[in-house]
Design a protein that fits this description.
This protein is an alpha+beta fold. The chain has a single domain, classed as Arc Repressor Mutant, subunit A (Orthogonal Bundle). It has 5 helices and 4 strands. It has a two-stranded antiparallel ribbon. α1 crosses α5 and α2 packs across α4. The longest helix is centred in the N-terminal third of the chain and has 13 residues. The two termini are 24 Å apart.
Length: 110
């Protein structure tokens, strides 16, 4: 991921409601969600949700798939991973970083 895409993704996620929307789509997994279900789960107005989904899509964090009369929104895990990789690229001062699930933090090897 380049700097411009990282900035766009971080900017899109820097809003509490958009972050909630993105997290809900991540939890939904590859099946994604339709806006009506998402709006209900998050207790947000559909027009507000539509604006936030558009911003997330513009940042490349979600995909939209037409399915009949509905639109299915899915988190883009490749972009999420790319953003995380970009943010942790130099976390260990040039060494490799190994995720520790048990400790839920980065362990650096020199």
């Amino acid at each position: 991921m380049d700097e411009d895409r990282a900035v766009a993704a971080l900017s899109a996620l820097a809003h509490a409601q958009r972050l909630r929307v993105f997290r809900a789509l991540v939890v939904a997994g590859p099946d994604g969600l339709v806006p009506s279900v998402l709006a209900s789960r998050l207790e947000v107005a559909r027009n507000t949700l539509s604006f936030h989904l558009k911003e997330l899509a513009h940042a490349g964090l979600v995909d939209i798939e037409p399915q009949g009369r509905n639109l299915i929104y899915r988190a883009r895990y490749d972009r999420m991973t790319g953003l995380l990789d970009y943010l942790t690229e130099h976390c260990c001062q040039g060494g490799t970083c190994e995720a520790s699930a048990a400790a839920a933090h980065q362990v650096c090897e020199g």
